[in-house]
Structures are given as structure tokens and as C-alpha cells.
Amino acid sequence: MTPSSVHDIRNLSLLGQAGSGKTTLAEALLAAAGEIGAAGSVERGDTVSDYDPQEKSMGHSLHASLVHLEWAGHWINLLDAPGLPDLAGRALATLPAVETAAVVVGAGSGVESGTRRMMTAARGKCRMIIVNKIDAAGTDFAALLDAIVAEFGRECLPINLPAPGGGKVVDCFFAPDGATTTAFSSVNTAHSAIVDQIVELDEELMAKYLEQGESLDPEQLHAPFEQALREGHLVPVCFVSARTGAGVRELLDILGRLAPDPTEGNPPAFLKGEGAAAGRVEVALDPERHVVAHVFQISNDPYRGKLGLFRIHQGQVTPSSQLYVGDGRKPFKVAHLLRMQGRNAVETPLGVPGDLCTVARVDEIHRDAVLHDSHDEDYFHLAPQAYPQPVYGLALITKKPADEQKLSEALARLTDEDPCLEVSYDVRGRRTVVRGLGEQHLKIVLDELSTRWNLQLDTAPPAIPYRETISVVAEARYRHKKQSGGAGQFGEVALRVEPLERGAGLQLGDEVKGGAIPTNFMPAVEKGVRQALAEGALAGFPIQDLRVVVTDGKHHAVDSNEVSFATASRHALIEAVLAARPQVLEPMLDVQVKVADALFGEVSGELSARRGRLTSTDSPAAGWMLISARVPMSEMDGFESRLKAICAGESEFVLEAGGYEPAPQDVQNELARSFATTGNGNGG
Question: Which positions fall inside the Tr-type G domain (predicted)?
């Protein structure tokens, strides 16, 4: 089957902490719907969505995998997203493709850092929480729901409840039976709470429900239910055990009957133009209009080549469609329109609005590309998805010099697949540097480089990306004058530097009057300023968070030229910065560590020894502590390995970029001394 109408489609991303059972849940849903004969298991390595050898070896999803199933006339597309904290970018990339973010919570684990991150990122989507593993012995369901409500708000309401022991679930919405025993609360209480929440958005229904005492059937509640999902006024909580099958069929009913179809979700924000001039463009879920589709994921298959997974937002796509990639002038023919079932690709004759499809062997396709069949859609793009900033780096050195080009090509493919993998070139060290979200992220990347591209690499810690800034206002004037027979060189520049708040970057100003510097030389002045800012003044690191204002200068009718003014402005900028009480800034990381209560002292001591500053502590679940700290990037080398040794692997660890702070004076002095001695810093 292939969906023939937008109203048949349900698009969901399974998100949440690693270990919550997302892949096992996807298997259970596929088996219950008859798509597969029996559910596979992560332990056996035979699941539909975790098919990569690296995934099987690690026992974790490493890439978002698309599967589909049919249930009661509804076509359900499921994206099984990675849950490892270091692969958060790969999970977040699925959000533009779906209406519903289904955040999976392990009943025994409770609300974890991955739960919080994905619930926050999915704001603006319709959200639901799926409590998995309800068969776990000793689960306090009432306490778990209280924790969910405390964390995410009173709009989190159960749509069904587990029976005692978690052997089945009890419906609290479609046909509630108040006499049925539940593990906590009651059917009537849960039913009243969710109906009360829904009818708040519809005055007419509220009048019927409250004033006339009329009961409301699910069909009457459907429209306000969808509105409540869109507005974040309701986050349904469902209970299930993917392992035993308890609640799986009930969950399929909920997805088919209540999850929004593409017309009922919040429409995507398509923009035309760049920056502040970009304007909102409406797309319509109309099969008769020209095609607009968004590529949300790229994967590179050894047999099928580059695969582009895309969401159709307007029009229809067929194997004969001719599509453009962004503002490209040459179309490609779709030829083979595919549906993915994990690794397996099935040819399909039609993709309708709201559908998720795949095209293969289109080299120019890339993540976040907009596909279209009309050049009226040039420069269309989807409002950008927010991703965490890569913070953990490694320098890569090929063991065989001949592999440099191969490494470059492999990294280009990996960065196309992973929005949180960043590649740069350290000019000072003459090495390729990759940055990701943590040590585990880069270990996965290194394994991919080894297994997929047969690259033999050495690694080294990358240079710390220190920066310089200024503390006070200062001025400087510099005259560049050179005579060598014939036309010489002459340029004089006066400028002022002013400190800006942290993170403000660079601002350039021009207060030159009376033609002291002719306008045709001002680009050369700016070039010299930018060159000096890139080179640094105190310790050889790029200078940031300042305003540079050119105030005056002099020129010579014969000897002035671009080189003269670029040189003069470069020297003037360095002198002004050195007079403005310069300081070195060090990059900071915001660190979250979840550890057992008994290990709190040892882990917090380890962070303090690395110049870390504890910012908060919390108790997310009984027996666990969540430590938040701010630590210099330069001190984090080896921390993850040390944490595993302290906690015997039983811990969670998340890094996020935390901006810049002034480095301690002894660190600044050493960096400045090294620069003065060698003329070279150690950062990038």
C-alpha cells in the first residue's frame, strides 16, 4: 500500500534517552501491525531500524531510521532516532519531518537529561510522552507521573493507565470503564482530567460538558484535541511495554485516531530570501500544486549511493518527476522513488503531500535542501533547526600521506549526514580538526572512518580555541611610509577600539571626515583591521567582542595605495588593542553529569580539580544526583574516561558550549610569553 491522501498519514519521531526502548518499541509496533512476522531485539541485532554493524555492536541506534506501517487505514511513518547524548543532532534533525514528537521514557529510569532535551527541542510540535517498560518490577507509576508533570507541566495527562503489575493498559479516553482497576489513580479521574483540558479550548463544548452535564464522544473531541496538541495545551501520556506487548495495540489506536495528520499539525516555516530580508512563504498540502519538499536526512549507502530522505510539503512526487535542488539550474529525474523500511528500500509509485520518501544517487542533494519543480521556488528554505554546538575536538593525522584526499572526502560525507559534526583546518598545526558533541561522538566517527573508508588515523588533542578581547577604550595612530625610488608607499590611519559585551563579535565604524582617507582606500583599511583581528595582539589568538572605529588618517596624492593603508590600519589596530588592557578568553563548557548519590563527592571533586565551578545540583530520581558545572575546555581532556572509571560506566554525561570567560592570569601570562618567544600561539 501507499498512502493516497494527506489525511491518511501520521508522521512521528521516537525521541528520548538511550535505553528507554525506542527501537524495541518500533519493533513491537511493526510486529503488531503485521509488517514483520516477529519483533526482533537489540540484543540479537536483528531489529529493522538498527541495521548498521556499528549499531549492532554497540547496542544503540546511531542514525535515525525510517520505518512505516499501516494500521486501520492509517499510514504511520516512524523515525527511530538515536538517544545517546552525543548524537542529539542526528535526533533533532528528524523534527522538521514530523508533526508529532513522541518522547519515550523508561518507567524505571524516569525523566532523564535526554527526556528534557527532546521535550524542550520539540516545542512547537505536537508532543506526546510514551512511558515504556511498564512491566519493570517495583515501578512507582504515581511518582513517575508526578515527576513528568513537575518537569513539563500540568498539560501532561494520561490517556490510558497501566493495570496493576503492568500486564496491560486501561483506556481512559475512547471507551472508559470506571470499574476497571488501575495501578494508580482511576479511569474516571484520568478521563475527566483530559476532557477538562481539551474543552477549555472550545466554549460551546465546555457549555455542553459543564452546564448540561452531557458526555462527549471522541469524535466531538477530535478537533479541540488536535488544537490542544498544536498549542501545547495537552501532552498525552501513554503507557506501554514494548517487550511484553502490553499497550502496543492501544498505542497504535491512539496514533491512528488521535495523532495529527499533516493538515492538523503546526505548518512549517518556509522562508524566501536571506537574513533579515527573509519573508515567510506559505506552502499548501495540495497535490495539484507544484512540488515543495525538504531533505531532512542524508545517508551514504555503499550500494545505492547517496540517499536523500525528504518530506513532501506540497504537490506530488512520482518516479517521472523532474526536481531542482534549491537554486540549481539543472533538474534531476527522480527515476526511483523509494520508501525506507530500515535498510530495505521499496519502490513506490507516488508520494503525496505530508509523505516521507527517499531518492537515491543524486550527488547534488544535501541536508536541508529544498526540492521543487518550479523556479518560482528559488532560495526557498526551511527556518533553521537549532542544534547544540560541537565542543569536543580531535586533530586527525593520516598514517599514509596519500590518504589525505580520501579523508577529506569521507569527512565531507559524514558532515552531510551529521549536523553536529564540524570539520576545520588548523593552519598553525597544519592538521584537520573534527569537533562533535563529546568523546563518544568522535569515537563513533573514527570507527566509521575506519570501517567505511578503511582509513588509518592517528589522533591528537586539538589546539584550544582561545580568543582575545579588550577591557577599555583606547586609540592609536600609525603612519606607514616607505621610499624606494620612484613612487613610494604612504598611508596613515587613526582608530579607536571599544569593548563590547561578551559574545557581541565585531563592529566596524567610520568617523573619517573631510576626505582624510579617500573612500576608495577604506576597503584596504578594513582589510588591514580584519587581518590584525585574525592574527591577535597579546597571545596570537583572534580578537573578538570589540568595536573598531576609524577616526582619521592622511594620504598622499602619489604614494598612497591599498597596501599602504592595509599595513597602516593593521599596525594601528594592534597598538590600540595593546593599549586597551587586552586579555585572553578561554572557551567554557557547560557540563551535566548524572551519578549515583554515593559518588557525588568524588565526581564534584574531579570537576573542581579541573577548575570547574558547580552551578546547580538536582535529584532527578531516587538514588541519583544531577551535577551541573561550568568547566574550561582546556581542562576537560580525559574527563569522560575518568568519569567511567569512577562510576564503573553507570553515569550520564552531556557537554554544551558555554561561551567564553577571561582565563586566569597565570594562563594568560604563559600564552602571551609563548607568543612573544615563538611568534605563535597554540590555538585556532
Answer: 7-263
**Rounded Cα gap, residues 129 and 343, in angstroms:** 27
Give the model confidence (pLDDT) of 412-446 as tens digits: 999 999 999 999 988 777 889 999 998 899 999 99
Q: How confident is the model at residue 655 (pLDDT cuts 50, 70, 90)?
A: confident
Q: What is the dihedral of CA 521, 522, 525, 527, to 10 degrees?
A: -100
Please tell me the predicted confidence (pLDDT) of residue 229: 97
- Is residue 684 over pLDDT 60? no
Neighbours of 10 (CB within 10 A): 28
User: Residue 484, by phi and psi: left (phi above 0), alpha (psi -120 to 50) or beta?
Assistant: alpha
Listed in sequence order, the residues at least 6 apart from 606 whose beta carbon sits closer than 8 Å to its beta carbon are 639, 642, 643, 646
**Backbone dihedral region of 124: left (phi > 0), alpha (psi from -120 to 50 degrees) or beta?**
left
Question: Is the CB of residue 338 less than 8 Å from the CB of residue 348?
Answer: yes
Task: Decide if 540 contacts 684 (C-beta within 8 A).
Answer: no
Asked if 243 and 133 touch (Cβ cutoff 8 Å), the reply is: yes
Region 579-588: what's the mean pLDDT?
Answer: 96
Is-contact 126 41, C-beta < 8 A? no
| Residue 7 near residue 70, CB atoms below 8 Å | no
Using DSSP bridges, classify how beta strands 380-382 and 474-482 pair: parallel, antiparallel or unpaired. Answer: unpaired
The sign of the torsion formed by the CA atoms of 345, 346, 350, 353 equals: negative
Question: Cβ distance 496 to 475 under 8 Å?
Answer: yes
> How far is CA 541 from each of CA 205, 266, 408, 682, rounded to the nearest angstrom?
64, 45, 26, 8
Instruction: Return d(Cα 126, Cα 92) in angstroms, integer.
Output: 15
Residue 128: name the closest of 84, 85, 158, 173 by CA: 158
For residue 98, name the pLDDT band (cuts at 50, 70, 90): very high
**Secondary structure letter of residue 28 according to DSSP:** H
Write down the H helix ranges in 458-612: 522-535, 562-579, 600-609
Enter the DSSP assignment of 472.
S
Phi and psi based region of residue 73 (left: phi greater than 0; alpha: psi -120 to 50; beta: remaining):
left
Cell triple for 252: 497504535
- Contact at 8 Å (CB) between 554 and 492? yes
